[in-house]
Amino acid sequence: MLWALSAEARCSDNSSGVGVVEYMNAGAAMRHSDSTRNTLSFGNRTSSSKMPKCDISDLALFGGQSTFEHIRYVGRPNTGDRDRFFSRLDGALDRRWLTNGGALVTEFEERVATLAGTRHCVATSSCTSALQVLIRAAGLTGEVLMPSMTFAGTAHAVRWLGLEPLFCDVDPDTASLDPELVAAAITPSVSAILGVHLWGRPCAVDELAEIADRHGIPLFFDAAHAVGCTFGGRPVGGFGTAEVLSFHATKVVNAFEGGAIVTDDDALAETLTALRNFGFGPTELRAGTNAKMSEASAAMGLTSLEAMAENVAVNRARYETYRDAVADLPGVELVSYDPAETSNYHYLTVLVDEAEAGVGRDVLFDVLRAENVFCQRYFWPACHEREPYRTERPVRLPHTERLAARVLTLPTGPAMSTEDVLVLCELIRYTISAAPAVLASWRDLRGRP
């Protein structure tokens, strides 16, 4: 057990293997008093937290008290140095230049291009608008081949422009596009391949590039999760024809809301720059849109970039704590990162195997949510199982569907302490240890057989 109780109370196992609480004097009084917090020991560390769960009635889902007083969120924004941010914002106000390619946006683009190892960065108002501007600039038509295992915004950006997402299954070992299936799915209607670096883990870049070259179509990447990551020692950003990045508030680098397109294609960069600003450029090429990044967003983006190394270090430390804490749990597989590459460790994802754990992902999801752990299911349902796609163009993607049914994303980053992570993992541990009783009670609660 990760938790070592103080002398006032202890957990023991009954004959069924489900933990029960045995109270001793002050322990019982403490549990039933207004003071419900106890000091728990984690080696040389301590954390002020509620009593550990020793009976399923202790779980908040079944009437107990929530472990965390305040909600632990996935993707809690990292704000960086406020003084630096406000100094930048004051400068923009003093210059009276708040948008339309001001000094802060220009600096942000230069910094991001350096990070991505590309000649060009075109900053936008969001990653979605970046993808849409890129699609327009490339003159795509027909279908865009992409994974279904991604945020709905990837598919919706394509659909919004009148094109059709062509969903392809993933490699079950990597959770990214399976190159063999991609090669088999290419038809004359496919005008581009759009890979996704899911959870910041680069997909099969080289294999997809070979397929795209063979068919004479562009290869783009949705790198929303992969800012600061590498593949083969090279920064994510310089692969394919272009990649799109996200600087949403929940990302490892945030600009409140923002995105960017990074590329080494000079002509494409010129077109992108025009199209994000209504089509205005050296020559008006075509009708554009308003997808510009503001100076306020760039001020936040620059401040966040300065804090990136520190935040990534914390992300990695939390990842390692989770890794060690769940290593022996049956049916809980931590999605790992290649130690030979650089990662931002921004997504802490586990895959839950109900046959081994005794409870499924949805049971753990409900248990943790009730304990004020706002975990997420990134990404369930998969895009092809969402409307309008599931009705208009139904397709079976068995690897994607199995993955989406198992995935659970847990809170990490500076907003989570090491002790928070250990307490959370012990919640998972207890739920699995009491799986038969938890599952039966969960089914009763949800009205399921």
Task: Give the topology.
Layout: E1 9-13, E2 19-23, H1 26-31, E3 37-42, E4 45-50, E5 72-73, H2 82-95, H3 103-116, E6 120-124, H4 127-138, E7 143-147, H5 152-160, E8 164-168, H6 179-185, E9 190-196, H7 205-215, E10 219-222, E11 230-231, E12 234-235, E13 242-246, E14 259-263, H8 266-275, H9 295-326, E15 332-334, E16 348-352, H10 354-357, H11 361-370, E17 373-374, H12 389-392, H13 398-406, E18 407-410, H14 418-433, H15 435-446
Parallel strand pairs: 5-17, 7-8, 7-9, 9-10, 10-13
Antiparallel strand pairs: 1-2, 3-4, 6-14, 11-12, 13-14, 15-16, 16-18
Helix pairs in contact: 2-9, 3-9, 4-5, 4-8, 9-14
Walkthrough of the structure:
- There is one protein chain.
- The chain has 449 residues and is α/β, with parallel strands linked by helices.
- Among the domains are: 1-52, no CATH class; 82-305, Type I PLP-dependent aspartate aminotransferase-like (Major domain) (Aspartate Aminotransferase, domain 2), CATH 3.40.640.
- The chain has 15 helices and 18 strands.
- The strands form six sheets. It has a seven-stranded mixed sheet with strand order 6-14-13-10-9-7-8, with helices on both faces.
- A hairpin with a 2-residue loop joins strand 11 and strand 12.
- Helix 3 packs parallel to helix 9 and helix 4 (127-138) crosses helix 5 (152-160).
- The longest helix has 32 residues, at 295-326.
- The radius of gyration is 24 Å and the shape is globular.
- It starts with 8 loop residues before the first strand and ends with a helix.
- The model is unreliable at 1-10 and 12-49 (pLDDT under 50).
